[in-house]
Every structure is written in structure tokens, then in C-alpha cells.
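Lab meeting, action items carried over

1. Structure of the four-component assembly. Owner: GW. Status: complete.
Input record:
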Amino acid sequence: MARGRDEVTIKDVARVAGLGLGTVSRVLNNKPHVNEKSRKRVLAAIEQLGYSPDLVARSMRAGESKTLAFVVRDFTGAILSALADAVQGEIDPLGFSLFVASSYHDPERELALIRRFKARRVDGLIIATSSEADPAVLSEFADGSMPLVLLDRELPEALDAVQVDHAGGAAQAVDHLVSLGHRRIALISGEPDVFPTTERVRGYREALARHGIRHRPALCRVGSFSVDFAYQQAFALLGSKQRPTAIVAGGTAMLPGVLRAAQELELVIPRDVSVVGGADGDLARYSTPPLTVVTWDYAELGRTAGRFLANRLEDPDGPRQRRLFPTRLVPRQSCAPPPDDP
Amino acid sequence: MARGRDEVTIKDVARVAGLGLGTVSRVLNNKPHVNEKSRKRVLAAIEQLGYSPDLVARSMRAGESKTLAFVVRDFTGAILSALADAVQGEIDPLGFSLFVASSYHDPERELALIRRFKARRVDGLIIATSSEADPAVLSEFADGSMPLVLLDRELPEALDAVQVDHAGGAAQAVDHLVSLGHRRIALISGEPDVFPTTERVRGYREALARHGIRHRPALCRVGSFSVDFAYQQAFALLGSKQRPTAIVAGGTAMLPGVLRAAQELELVIPRDVSVVGGADGDLARYSTPPLTVVTWDYAELGRTAGRFLANRLEDPDGPRQRRLFPTRLVPRQSCAPPPDDP
DNA sequence: ATCGAAATTGGAAACGTTTCCAAAATCAAG
DNA sequence: CTTGATTTTGGAAACGTTTCCAATTTCGAT
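Predicted assembly:
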């Protein structure tokens, strides 16, 4: 099992170079106090033996692993994978490698993942907690034993965070629809206890109020980030007698559900109902008609998260880092004035 | 920097339990030869101190890290992230954590990633090499120093692999189109030096031959897995005088490009041109019209890759593992008989 | 009670680094 | 040359485990 019986170690390098362990280590880490001639000899020996340092041993001794973890609810989906990709791209040049794991919306599982990463001596965590309310997960963070960056979440602790201005996004969507003449505007979003949903609801209600439109609870559907949930809600909404003339779909997973419901009820977008997507993607961009969406810069969000975490590791007591990413509305062809009669 | 000054170690547990290191270690690893009463004492001490073993130290001593890496060209995209997710789900219960990294189609970068993972003592690799031809990457595998599973690639070495039957898939697409009356069928796929493309081309040509249709090189466009490439090729193809009546788009990234080209040329799918997608996804499923695609079970592919790698670690000299995943054609509404005149 | 076998136990050694300290070599100034 | 300061060097100790071996305890049979 134990591969690497034949691995060359720093001792071999020292022997071949005819120098001591200390000197080799100093060369490896670019430390001062090593004669130019010795450095050359060490480098030659390294080259000759094909030596490369054992990062596990290094972690062991140094107490840090140059390793980060990215924990989300679910990787299946273009946005979170784009984020992971961006994070990895950002931290790789700094010598870090990235673990990823999904909690599948299960706080229990999430906790187990965090614990295991802690045991692996991961240097830091980028995490979109499955819930903002789970006390077990919260208390795992409370002791401050693990540097972390929150991804689109809001926790009571004073943690570094990158967030998207979903409230602003929802407001942009409502403004746009109102300007087209809509008054009965529905919102569908996912899990009620996470930042993206609470913010969307807040932005939606505030925008309605601003336009003097009464908020009807029946039009605000919040539950779970799944295609099925979105489908059911959209179906119920669009099938009702006083159906909304527009739907704001929060989150990527909502869009397919809404489209399917509209299709099954033989409602044509945007003639019969207007739709604004809560995040951009291939589906929104290339479907017919292309869908108006609220979007933001995924890659930059990921890079920022990675950078925040790297900063934090360098300066554990530095000031809290936060950034709220603005959204923007991309008008395409899924919104039109409301139909006359219904 | 060195967090964890206060961490509790196996020595503390031994002291509190009033037993030796060996005994504690035996309890931790469920080894035999430990008295029931001692076991209880150790467990109590662990509980009391909140001890959890340091996985880095364990790796150090054991020579294996319980860590795997997943290296692909690009994570942005639903398929590869679904695969990563499946791999992670499969290996997590076995105690493994998963690193991910993108090579961005750059063999140089890919090599650097592999080297770093080796230095991290990763136990194994699941990899979709950026090219099947790069000698540097090949030779890195040749020494057999790292167990690995190939993902949709074919290399001369006798390596474990999971692959998709893209040749069969392309043939299914061609058969379907021919049965509708098409004769001028184009294929667009990505990088020419990787398994999915070479197989698609092979399947495409064989199917054409089987139907007695002459292969026209101009209709077979192969280059890069990018939306832009697909767009350009589709635009050229559909804008030509003898334009194809059907296009087979190999790979997810191809689809948006083809759709956009058709849209800009004001060609209606499937009236003016039929389209078969080379992989399924939200876009294909929910766009209007829904697109006929060739697909396969992404999650099962990922799980199998994970399982193969775990098997290999358990039995380094076991028989070579391979699996070719069948594709199936999902008829939707993007294919129709060819237009009469063009 | 006594003996041999089996079960249980403790702790040194090892894994491959980096860090630290003391020793050796070099240098500059007198 | 001598001396004191500085640079360079070597190697023991430490990081937290597991493994191994020898020592001790327990057990069963006589």
C-alpha cells in the first residue's frame, strides 16, 4: 500500500550535496544565510535526484496545510461551479489547493464536512451554509478557530463575507415590470432561511411599497431551491383565477420550473405572462424567447472570496472584509406589458 | 500564524485516560487487543477533551492521505460539476476528500497541478487530460507512481477508465436524422485530440457510410469546445449555399453557439434546420422548442469513476477497470424532415 | 499453587519537514 | 597576526500519529 518507499527526501539531497539538512531546507525556503556556492550544489542535487518536497510533512511541521475548502449545498449547477472554478483560479498561484464538498442541504452533513476539513488542518473555508439558523453549525464557527469567508450568507458573527445584492436585484425586477404596467407581480424563491431569499423578499416588498402596490402574501412563494418546487408554485400561481401578470424567479433552479408550468398551461411568454429570471445562464440566454434576468459577476464573486480568505490568513486580526456585489437587469424578450383582460 | 497551539493530541487523551499511547491508538483504529474497560476509559477521555485525530499527522505516518484529486479542463459548466459532485458523494463515505482543479486546456498548467497533487501525497487522480497527445503529461503517468482513472479519455497506457460511447451517440443522432429524410448532416465538435471528439467523428462517419451517404469534409467541423467556435462554424455552415439540413452539436458548449447562429440567420428550428445536441442540460430541456439530444448518465459516470479509483487503491494490482457508458437519444422537438427546396 | 499461552499494555522509533542553537568558518579592523 | 563580529553550517528536537517489540498481566489447565 505504502507507495513512495522509493521517494527521495531532503536527507538524500543533503547527502548528495554533501551538506547538512539545515542548509538544504534554507535553500528550499529561500531563507538567507546560505552561501551562493552551497545553494548551487543543493539545487544541482535536487535536479539530479528529482526531489520535490513532501507537502504533508511540511504541513505537519508548519501547522498549516496550504489547503482551502469550498462547502456549498450542491455543486450541480453552473453558478456554484463557476464560483468554485474562480476560487481555485485565484488561490492556485498562491500555492493553495482547493477541496470541494456538497452538504446537500443537510446541516448534519455540513457539520461533518466542516469537522473533517478541520481535522485535515485546512487553512480556511469558503462556505455557503445550508441554513443561517442552524445552531450547531453556528457554534462550530463561534470559537473562531477556523478562518472563513461566507458566501452569500449573513450570520450574527462578524465574519468576512461576499454577498450579492439580491434585494436590489429583486427591486430592479419589480421596477422594470411596473414600468411596463404590471401590478400583480409574483416572486418565487428558495429556502426561506438563507440570505438570497430573505433579501429578495425584502427588496420585492420594498419595491412594491415604493410603487404603492399592496403586498399580497399569496403572490410571494418561498420554499426550496428545486425545479419541482418552482414548477408547483408557478403552476398554482398561473392556474389561479386572479393570476399574476408577471413572475420574478429567484435563483437559477427556479427558471426551468416556471417555464415548464407556463408551457403546460399554454401561456406564451411574454404575451400572457412576463418572467424575470433571478440569475443568468445558458438557459436564460439562449432559450426562445431569451429571458430578461437579474445577474451579477459570478467569477468576480469567486475571485473576491478567494482573495478575502487569503488576506485573512495573512492577517488574522485585520479588519473585517465584506463586499456586496451589485446586480444588474439584463432586458431581453420575456417581459411585455400585461395582457388586457384576464 | 500557527493556530492550534491549544489543540488536544493523543498524548492528552492517554494522560487523561491513564493509559499509554499505543492503547489509545488501538482504540482509535478499532484494532484488537484492547480491554473493554480501557476502551471505555479512552472513549470517555476523547469525549471529555473533544479530541479528534489530526489527519495530517496520520497521513504523514501512514503514507496515504485519504485524499483524491479531480482534474479537468474547465469547471464552468454543468456536466463536469455534476461529475465532480458525484465523485465527491461516492468517495466521501469512504473517508476521502476531493481536490478539484482546472487546467484551462493548458498542458503546462495541467502538469503543474498533477505535480502539486503528487507532492500533497494525494492517493489518486481522476483526470480528463487536456490533450491525449501531450508527451509530458503522458510520461508523468507512465511510471505508474500514481493510481488514476481516466475520464472520457483514451491513452496508450493500460489505465483504468470510464468513457462515454460518443461514437454510438453520434451514430444514433445520424440514424435519427436519416430516418427523417436528411442527407446533408453536419457535425460540430471540440478539440480534435481528445476521445469525445475522435469518437464522435468516427461514429458519424461510420453511420453515414452505413446509410450510403458520402462524407463531405466540409460538413465535419472540429476545433474547440467553446461557444464561439460553435457559433462561427454553425454560422458558416448555415450561411453557405449548400447548407446542411441538420446539425449534430457535440458537447454542451456547442449548443448555444448553434442556436445563436440559427437565430441570427433567421432559421427556425426544426422547420429550416434540425438540431441534435451532443449532451443534455437545462438549455436543451427547457428551451423552445425543447431540443433532441444524445445523453447519458452523468452522475453514474462520476460515481463509477470514484468507485474505480477506490477499488484501485484497495487493490493496486487488480485487473484493469473500464466501462463504456451507453448513450441514448432523447427525441424532443428540434428535428423534423428536411425542408423541400433549399 | 504453578506453568505456559494468550491477551493486554507502554513507549520508543519512524514518517519528512522546519526551526533552533551552538559550532565552525569567514571577514574586517586593529 | 589577533580579535571580535558576522556569516554559514550541521544536526537535534519537534510536529502528532501508527507500528512494533518487549514487558506485564490475565487466563486456563494441570
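2. GW to write a short summary for the group page. Key points so far: The first strand of chain A starts at residue 67 and ends at 72. Chain A touches chain B through 60 residues (CB under 8 Å).
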